[in-house]
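Render this sequence as a predicted structure.
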Amino acid sequence: MSDYRHTVVLRCVDGLLRDALANWIASLPGYLVAGAAATGDGLLRLCALRSPDTAVVELRSADPDELQFVGELRTVRSEPQIVGLHRALDARSLAFLHHAGVHRLVSTRFGVAGLRDALADAEGGWRPASPGHGLSGRELEILALICAGCSAAEIAAELGISPHTVTNHKRRIFAKLDVQSRTQATAEVGRLGMRLPGELSRSPGGDAPRNLTKRERDILDSIARGESVRQTAQALGIAIKTVQSEQRQLFSKLSARNRPQALTNARGFGLVDST
């Protein structure tokens, strides 16, 4: 029996619906949700990084921008099957979307049955996507540890590899994500709604802190944009030492020791949205 899992990415503007869909698909036997983005650009990036078999896309119209997006989705290297979710588009709009390249169109008015059927079509002949040039399994493991705030030495010890190997992997990860720091990498993971292996990238248990000051919120928002301490200071018009002092308090409230871990924990607590 094959242990292959059908890889799915999705795009949905509404955060609650996006999370609900991702969790439901992930609960189906044989399916892996690689990421859930809020934007078309985010979904295209996910396809490049994760080479999915299927892209589930919320479609609200058949206007030129949406049709162009579908066309771009068809050109990604992994050639995913496209399942479009719509509320109640008319026959003309559905015809345009189908002609643009959407393989299956499913109305959300009838619950999850239609989506389940569309995903099940994979068992009827959709081929697994080619690996392409996305993130490898090892790179995903290392990225999860980066988001958990681990240093290169800690990652090396956890995975049983050398720090030099970790550094080489990290360099390739940053190039694929088009980022230059661990904080930027963690911010990009959140923006794309990427799901990483294991539990290391998830937030700690307990309730979300409710006593963040306005300054701490501003610093957290800056971290979520992938900014450095210097960039945060410039954006807020304060000294670098002030940022460092304020963020120590923020880290304590978020049970974090550095910016990547603070951002990951804040996202888990629902304090930061994916955009």
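Summary. The first strand starts at residue 6 and ends at 11. The domain at 137-192 is CATH 1.10.10.10 (Arc Repressor Mutant, subunit A).
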